[in-house]
Design brief:
With 119 residues, the chain is an alpha+beta fold. It contains two helices and three strands; from the N terminus they run αββαβ. The protein has a three-stranded antiparallel sheet, covered by helices on one side. The protein is elongated. About 13% of the residues have low confidence.
Amino acid sequence: MPSAPEAAQEPVYPLPGVPVSRDGAGVAPERPFHDLFARRVLVEASAKAKSCATPTGPTGSGVVQVTFAPNGQVGYAIVVGQPFAATDVASCVASIFRGAAIPSFSGGPVTRSQSFSIP
């Protein structure tokens, strides 16, 4: 009896856009920090920060410093300067900014500043 023909082995190709090392193992793609995306997320958080207003708390404009970790999460957010520093309003604002996230990126943490306003 003739034997069945062997199935042809199809070559294995990497996913498009994923670098492959010489030994064929996939490596994580380099993904730079996306500044425009981060700005958009910070502007959205700034709009949400208006909800931190209290009847007796400080009002006006302030600045928050936000540090994005390479996984895209905010690892650090702090309100700097007066009249908000060390107030409940500042804690609320920082909490909102800590909830921001962007796509993961390669490299180390990146810090950006964003203004906000409490009416």
